[in-house]
Specification:
Blueprint (H helix, E strand, L loop, with lengths): L5 H11 L6 E3 L6 H14 L1 E6 L4 H15 L2 E6 L2 E5 L18 E7 L9 E7 L3 E3 L5 E3 L7 H5 L1
Parallel strand pairs: 1-2
Antiparallel strand pairs: 2-4, 3-4, 5-6, 7-8
């Protein structure tokens, strides 16, 4: 189980205030599927909230301690039926199969003013993999190459 200083715990509580619970624990309790979801949430977010449906406070405390012990997470806060957990995010390595040029990218478009006397307009645009910027600063989507219907029949 991870240990936090009171200052770190206080900062994490403040950060978790605006979060919504991403895992709900129902009457079945801590099943392997629930534990896997909590682990995935910790891997991707680092700081998560878990809601426990059930009125037994002792069972909630036991679940809280079990989760922290098994997933090597730090208990941040237990308030009512909400549990706040923290574990540093795992660094995921990008796979080498991704082709260059695919995916989203940011492009800066500079358009001169129509009169030529004012400042040019500068805008940053997020482009998808199949989009391009034309000479005039417009965004065009690449079209699929057309094939002849006659060649398909032959």
């Amino acid at each position: 189980m991870l240990n936090l200083t009171p200052v770190e715990r206080s900062a994490l509580r403040a950060e978790a205030h605006g979060l919504k619970p991403i895992v709900m624990i129902g009457e079945a309790g801590l099943t392997p599927a629930v534990m896997k979801e909590i682990e995935l949430g910790l891997d991707s977010h680092g700081l998560i909230k878990v809601r426990v449906f059930g009125d037994d406070r002792e069972a909630r405390i036991e679940m809280y301690e079990t989760i922290c012990a098994e997933l090597d997470a730090a208990p941040v806060q237990h308030i009512g039926k909400l549990l706040v957990l923290y574990r540093p995010k795992k660094e995921t390595e990008k796979t080498g199969n991704a082709k260059a040029g695919k995916g989203m990218r940011t492009v800066t478009i500079v358009k001169p003013s129509p009169s030529g006397t004012k400042k040019p307009t500068v805008s940053k645009v997020l482009l998808k993999g199949n989009e391009r910027v034309t000479q005039g600063g417009n965004i065009k989507r690449a079209k699929k190459r057309q094939t002849s219907s006659k060649k398909a029949l032959a």
